[in-house]
Amino acid sequence: MKANLHPVYHQITVTCSCGASFTTGSTKDSITTDICSKCHPFFTGEQRFVDKVGRVQRYQAKLASATGKKKKKDRKASTGPQTLSELRASQAK
Fold first, then answer.
1. DSSP 5
2. What is the pTM of this model?
3. Contact indicator for 33, 17 with CB cutoff of 8 Å
């Protein structure tokens, strides 16, 4: 095997923004996370909504506009030539 090919593997402490920490192995020197199993709503059972301003309103407006039926195109009401002779006459002009 080649020497100095693999990265150095460290035992590090991962720290969450809530203050919780745990030990794991990584090639990085340290890891800081925003959310962990101690503070994540799925694991804690708390219900929190993280909403950017206007996202829900934009979704509701999009949903409301999509509920209307679209009109089908009327293929019979075309403005072009209807027969082969009309087509030839329009190309001759």
1. -
2. 0.42
3. yes
Query: Exposed, middle or buried, 77 (CB in 10 Å: 0-12/13-18/19+)?
Result: exposed
3-state secondary structure 46-92: CCCCCCCCCHHHHHHHHHHHHCCCCCCCCHHHCCCCCCHHHHHHHHH
Per-residue DSSP letter, 14:
E
CATH number of 1-43: 4.10.80.400
| 78 compared with 64, residue with greater pLDDT | 64
Query: Which token pair is 31?
Result: 């890891």
Q: What is the pLDDT of residues 5-38, one digit of tens each?
A: 888 898 999 999 888 999 999 999 989 998 888 8
Q: Which two tokens stand for residue 50?
A: 């993280």
| Domain ranges (residues) in the chain | 1-43
